[in-house]
Amino acid sequence: MSSRFQYYGGLGPAIAGVSCTLFCIGTILVSLRIYTHFTIVKRSGGWALIWACVAYALGVPSVILYVMAALDGLGNHLSIVATDPYLADSLLYEWIAACTISFSVGFAKLSAMCYILDVQRRTHGYGRWALLVFVGGNFICYIVTVPLIFTQCTPTAGLWNMALNADCSGINRGIIWAEITGAWGAATDLLLALYPVFIIYNLQIQLRLKIILCFLMGLGVFTAICSLVKTAQFNRLEISPDATYEIAPLMIWGMTEMWIVLIASSVAPLWPLLRLSASRLTQHHRSDHSLFSGPVFSRRKFTAHSSRGDDGAGGDGPHADAFRKLGSRNTSQEAMVTADGIKMTHDITVSHEPVGGRDADSPEGFGHGRDHGKAVYAGDMA
């Protein structure tokens, strides 16, 4: 290891490890979100995707700066890095990253808001205004944060260069503002996480599907937790004599908040991809265990499956059964289709009855066995 990185240690590896791990997860989800938009959705949700990409673009340099700061000794004990010639550089990297992280979080929340508004369309006017006020308030907080950061010390370089005899009386002001921003951010996260529950609650869909969608769109609760924990770290940093070590938890929670809000806002828009993958998986499984054949089943782009009784289990295998329980029943019901967002759809059950005394097992009938089986066409009707 080169001499430049000889001070790398303490909580520095944790800073670099958490940053790189969350970066990889976020990259995968944002890439899948882009793929989903351009290959499946194609029309709606454009602004939500744009702001998510802006948040990601701001998050990438944040990761690079945090890793560089950790390699230069930030996160290690002050007694060890006091003679580090690169300590000033590492502190400068951290302050710049604090700004990029703030705006990355802001744009990720803006993306989540746009997605929710795209789902609810023109309904829930009061909810729309609440989202605009809270997300807009976040941006005001982040815009004010930047000048507050760089006016904490006089001269400004004293903020990252401990060798300067700088007047840093503005640090207390910065910490108070950071606590206000953190509290407002946590409230916004909770609103973005819980508000979709009221939208989904009124949809005429299966309870299990409601729970799944509420969970996907409610992952922002974890972001609120990260924001509150991060805010609590400011007081510890203010009174600690070992600032270079105690700043590490603040950096880790700040980085976690940034990526969790982006990840949480990107999971729900992936529902079309998950639904399509599930559909293809069940269709592939049925092609190997098909109960029906003939031109009558290939004329239309419908999925046919056999069912017995009312539970919808037609012996298609574990994957088909699991996803059928998630998205459809053998009675008229509402299902989620996300080719253009969330839509209300119906499944149609077509039952063939014997005509003229034909037995259900005859070649002219669709039934299998003596219980007059049903042929179910899962057609999506917007």
Oligomer: single chain
Q: Please give the order of strands in the largest beta sheet.
A: 1-5-4
Label the overall shape.
elongated
Most strands sheet: 3 strands, antiparallel
Mean pLDDT: 76
Distance between the ends: 61 Å
Q: Give the helices and strands as they follow along the chain.
A: HHHHHHHHHHEHEEEE
Radius of gyration: 27 Å
- Assign the structural class, choosing from mainly alpha, mainly beta, alpha/beta, alpha+beta, or little secondary structure: mainly alpha
How many DSSP H or I helices? 11
Can you tag this structure with a few keywords?
382 residues, mainly alpha, three-stranded antiparallel beta sheet, two-stranded antiparallel sheet, 11 helices, 5 strands, elongated, disordered C terminus
Describe the structure.
- It is a single chain.
- This protein has 382 residues and is mainly α.
- 62% of the residues lie in helices and 5% in strands.
- It contains 11 helices and 5 strands; from the N terminus they run H-H-H-H-H-H-H-H-H-H-E-H-E-E-E-E.
- Strands 1-5-4 form a 3-stranded antiparallel sheet, with no helix packed on it. Strands 2-3 form a two-stranded antiparallel sheet.
- Helix 4 runs parallel beside helix 9, helix 6 runs antiparallel to helix 7 and helix 8 runs antiparallel to helix 9.
- The longest helix is centred in the first third of the chain and has 34 residues.
